[in-house]
Amino acid sequence: VFAGMNGSAIENFSCMIYNISFMNCTWRAGRDAPGDTQYFLYWKNTRYDDAMECELYIKDENGRNTGCRFQNVKIEAEEAYFLVNGSSKDSLIQFYDEYIELYKIEILTPPLNVTVNCTRDPAGCIITWQPPLTSHMENVNCFAYEISIQKK
Predict the structure, then answer these.
(1) Do the domain assignments include residue 91?
(2) What pTM was computed for the model?
(3) Exposure letters 99-110 (e unless 16+ CB within 10 A, then b)
């Protein structure tokens, strides 16, 4: 049983990693949370790390923390742990926590150095590229590509 008032924990927690090492996490205030509730995010990238508080909160128009921006995020092999707790003068606020495998929330950059060489002979066109940059992928064979060719 969670301590705190029902409906006071955050809702719709989600995170995404982009541009290799940046991460945004966002959430909505609990629907029954008192108006003065403020939320705080803590996270651990691996079980051996110490929990760190968000350094750059995203705030709504009332100054309430509704997200966090991270820089220099490294994707480790194990799950990262996220915890958002809250405080209010009026009542105890329930916490929310979740384990997330970071590689599953990464938005990959496009492949690099895409080139197209077309000839008139039946061979047609040769398209080449290099894998996208990522902070964690050792094996480039893990990537799958799809080419969409539209005739104009």
Answers:
(1) yes
(2) 0.84
(3) ebebeebbeeee
133 in any annotated domain: no
Residues 79 and 91 sit within 8 Å (Cβ to Cβ): no
pLDDT digits (tens, 9 = 90+) for 35-94: 999 999 999 998 888 999 999 999 999 899 999 999 999 988 889 999 999 999 989 999
Encoded amino acid at 18, one letter = Y
Q: What is the CATH number of the domain that holds 70?
A: 2.60.40.10
The residues, any chain, with a CB within 8 Å of residue 72's CB and separated by 6 or more, are 21
CA distance 49 to 91: 31
Domain count, the chain: 1
Q: Is residue 85 part of a domain?
A: yes
User: CA 72 to CA 51: how far, in whole Å?
Assistant: 16
- Look up residue 82 and give its two tokens: 């996220």
**40 falls within a domain:** yes
Domain holding 46, by residue range, is 11-104
Q: How far apart are CA 80 and CA 106, in angstroms?
A: 13
Tens digit of pLDDT for each residue in 108-149?
A: 888 999 999 988 877 788 899 998 888 776 677 788 888 888
